[in-house]
Amino acid sequence: MRSWSIRVCAILLIPFLFLTAAPAGASVDLSAPGSYAVGYADVSVSASGRSFSARVYYPATSAGSGTAVASGRFPAVAFGHGFFQSISKYASLGGHWASWGTITIMPTSHGGLFPNHSAFADDLNAALTWMVAQNTTAGSRFNAHVRTDRLGLSGHSMGGGAGVLAAARNSAVRTVTNLAAAETNPSAKTAASTTTVPMQLVAGTNDSVAGPSGNQIPIYNAKLAPKQLRTIIGGFHCGFTDSGGIGCDSGSISRAAQQAITRRVTTAWLLYYLHDDTAQHDAVWGASAQTDPAVQFLGVQ
Question: Out of the domains of life, which is the source (predicted)?
Fold first, then answer.
């Protein structure tokens, strides 16, 4: 029997309600906030010939805007938003990953009606390049705080597909975890066939916008191992965002439940592949992952 609890956590100085959901026997509930306070900063990125604004969520000494980065060096992940979606719709996930020690940068570019998928992929890589440069930039709050050899990519829908494109172009990337990754132009499926880094694709069975059969499954099938497809039972496309909107679908589970599962599954992946936390092997590849009653498992390690 899965235990459920309600926790209230302050991120961005705005209360978020977290419905936690951990499988029976889990030693740590990764859907709950981690040990770090969450800071955030709006930045102007200029790298690799590209310029755009972005928001960065990071482990901090205290919660809020522009607070000091916590002691230590942390992996960095670039996250791509979905089609016509504001990055604010992913605030809870960015803050959650930061609370577990992962810096998350979210470019605002290509948020209009006519995005360029290839250029968005380049922006995701440029965001990582910028984060790496901040590690040695005098006066940067991130100076000496970035693990430059632990970089990842993520995104939702269009941003997930762009993340696959970006991974195929960037040898510095160590892993990818995506939410309802959509096929793109150029093809994320084709890009996946040349990508060797571990990739996790998180999907929802009730997704009627960019469903598994036409998007995540073809990308998974094309992907070289290691690869994993985790499909949330009853999950829906807009259940990965903090709020819905025009054209959104619905599922058989609540948004709060889906987001709790998403936090748990993706955090375990990032801890395992970017933080070298081998204790997460069971949650990522072992019996706990393969018998999770809330999430279907398909994977090749």
Answer: Bacteria
CATH number of the domain residue 122 falls in: 3.40.50.1820
In sequence order, the 6+-apart residues with CB closer than 8 A to the CB of 182 are 82, 83, 157, 158, 160, 161, 188, 210, 215
Q: What is the pLDDT of residues 81-137, one digit of tens each?
A: 999 999 999 999 999 999 999 999 999 999 999 999 999 999 999 999 999 999 999
The 10s digit of each residue's pLDDT in 11-37 is 333 333 333 344 444 579 999 999 999
Domain count across the chain: 1
Q: What are phi and psi of 296, to 5 degrees?
A: -70, 145
Query: How many angstroms separate the CA atoms of 268 and 281, rounded?
Result: 8
Please answer whether residues 75 and 127 qualify as being in contact, where contact means their C-beta atoms are separated by less than 8 angstroms.
no
List the domain range (segments joined by +) for residue 280: 38-300
Domain assignment present for residue 204? The answer is yes
Cα–Cα nearest to 131, from 36, 54, 39: 54
Q: Comparing C-alpha atoms, which of 118, 121, 115, 142 is closest to residue 130?
A: 142
Domain-embedded: residue 19:
no
pTM (2 d.p.):
0.91
Residue 3 is assigned to a structural domain of this protein: no
